[in-house]
Amino acid sequence: MQHRIIVLGAGYAGTSAAGRLAKRLHPEDVAITLVNAEPDFVERVRNHQLAAGQVLKHRPFAAMFAGSGVELKLAKVTAVDADAKTVTVIGADGVEELQYDTLVYALGSGWNDQGVPGVAEHAYELASRPGALKLRDCLARTDAGGTVTVVGGGLTGIEAATELAEARPDLGVVLIARGGLGDWVSTKAQAHLRKVFGKLGITVHEHTDVAEVRADAIATADGREIPATVTVWTAGFVVHPIAAATTMETRPDGRIVVDRDMASVSHPDVFAVGDSGYAIGDAGKPLRMSCATGTPMAWQAADSIAARLTGTKAGRTSLKYSGQCISLGRKNGLVQWVTPDDRTKNSSLRGPLAARMKDFVCGFAAWSVAHPTFGMPVRRHRVAVSPEPRTVRLGSNA
Question: Hey, what CATH topology would domain 111-237 get?
């Protein structure tokens, strides 16, 4: 009887895990099902480019996984029962209940309105492809002289503001940041950000809290009103709520607590990767939600599952950081070098070379999804054992 592996979510982490498992395990011994609501891979880190009107490469899963043994099921996940080992989905065939022996949970995250009034009604998001396409269509209808106001001074907000300002110089672009502009990067990197924002004509409101989003303006906590023909909300992400509704041990933010193998500390037959998992990195600190984190987590989970099923020892994927790549339009960029535990170093790469590096990193991330064992020997091992779940102390993250 085949060991049933179900992978939920086909972002960077879920797709990488499914592909790596298919190249690690013999197809006669395992049935790998990848569940996703959309038929194509979405380069989430390029959604700001999509919103700005650029055409991105089409990456259908049917072509990516052709001949791999991975079965793609187009459906939306509605529930997980980690005790009964079932997943409820709804798709073209209606509501179905899928049974698994091993589950890879990679449902990721979406935009977070932070409970601010008016966000859901009046703002656009970039956390999903549909959101980016809606924003693109809205901008296409926006006449010259209008104002695009981006709320959120993190990586997504900075990339969105600069991309839109470069693509639509006929529009005014405003960035609202709760802190200072790029206040987590080095001094020279901050100066570079300000220089680029100045050249692009982007107005920045720093140390500003948003109290309400209106149809044509942003109301701030200190009583000001900032014009906004179009509002783009990038102020944080929130994980998919399904895990928190299960009996699995989760963090207050809904992420599944996992060990070094990426297995749930309460349900060892569930592996959580990407934004869905709460893992401790090699430097002893929690990993942040990012593509840079999700893919290595997926590699580790796949190798851990394969080792458990084949009775071998799993290797250790490196779980540490080296830098943050930020695009500032198509012609400029910033690479901020960081320590393994994600603390800012004094050194950075700035300008066109940094832009090319960022583009390469994004391209390689998408390419590696379809080539999950790049640089490693491909061996489809036979399942040698009937794995028994390990006994793990609840609350442990060792």
Answer: FAD/NAD(P)-binding domain (3.50.50)
